[in-house]
Specification:
This protein is of the alpha/beta class. Strand 7, helix 6 and strand 8 form a beta-alpha-beta unit. The longest helix is centred in the N-terminal third of the chain and has 30 residues.
């Protein structure tokens, strides 16, 4: 009988110990933290939208530092330098495509127009095979070292400064998605001649306003600013000798003045 009582006491003690251990483990689990492996959340940004691109990340050769980087005068880089550039042109500059003045690729739409308020729908006629590509896809194919942007004078209806800048910077983001090392040179709009009368209400004052927006794009992205107004304009208006009969499209003399400016304001490697 005594042996049986002792055995029962031992079993009771073991059960008590087990229950105590179980209770302690439960308490520790309830108040403790797990520091095991963690995985980082992944964001699928997809195609860049205007709202995502109020500022573009610094790229090779383009570092926003609070300074407007104007092209500085250099020695004559020669025609070889001009031929190394790729030009994205709206209607004011598109005659460069057929001018034969540069062997560099000149990109523009089939019609020659690139309205800023329809930038998300832009397609350019790619030289060689005449395929229709977005500027980003064209850069994916060409991987240009330097892209000269001659845009901003069309499709301004309904655009504020902020929306213009957001559209322009969205274009940068799209291009750098496919060609991250491409450096941008932004040209100001070429203004219009003093006697210009058009449905777009462009004037010397309006052109100066748009050019201040383009300068802001350069300030915020680190892109280079090519001050073509110093050679193309007089008193805020496009020089008559540089314009076609419509008063806003650059003629051969105007295009030659633009290219001469770029070849003596060259980016060096």
């Amino acid at each position: 009988m005594q042996k049986r009582a002792l055995k029962d006491m031992i079993w009771a003690a073991c059960i008590a110990i087990a229950l105590s251990a179980l209770f302690i483990g439960f308490v520790l689990e309830a108040v403790g933290h797990y520091y095991g492996d963690k995985s980082r959340p992944v964001m699928d940004l997809g195609h860049p939208s205007v709202s995502q691109t109020t500022a573009v990340q610094p790229q090779s050769g383009m570092t926003p530092d609070g300074t407007l980087h104007r092209l500085q005068q250099t020695g004559d880089a020669g025609k070889a330098y001009l031929d190394s550039l790729v030009y994205l042109c709206d209607a004011s500059f598109i005659p460069l495509r057929s001018s034969g003045m540069t062997a560099g690729q000149v990109w523009g739409s089939e019609s020659g127009s690139l309205p800023m308020n329809r930038l998300d729908l832009w397609t350019i006629t790619y030289p060689g095979d005449n395929s229709q590509l977005s500027p980003g896809k064209a850069c994916q194919r060409a991987q240009p070292k330097t892209l000269v942007l001659c845009i901003g004078s069309e499709g301004l209806d309904g655009l504020t400064e902020d929306s213009f800048v957001q559209y322009y910077e969205a274009l940068f983001a799209d291009i750098h998605q496919y060609s991250p090392d491409t450096v941008m040179i932004c040209c100001p709009v070429a203004s219009v001649t003093p006697g210009y009368v058009g449905l777009d209400s462009m004037s010397g004052t309006r052109a100066a306003e748009i050019n201040s927006w383009i300068a802001r794009v350069c300030l915020e992205t680190g892109a280079w600013y090519a001050d073509l107004t110093s050679v193309l304009n007089d008193g805020g208006y496009l020089r008559s000798e540089f314009a076609e009969a419509d008063g806003r499209t650059l003629n051969a003399a105007g295009l030659n003045a633009m290219l001469n400016y770029l070849r003596i304001h060259a980016l060096t490697a």
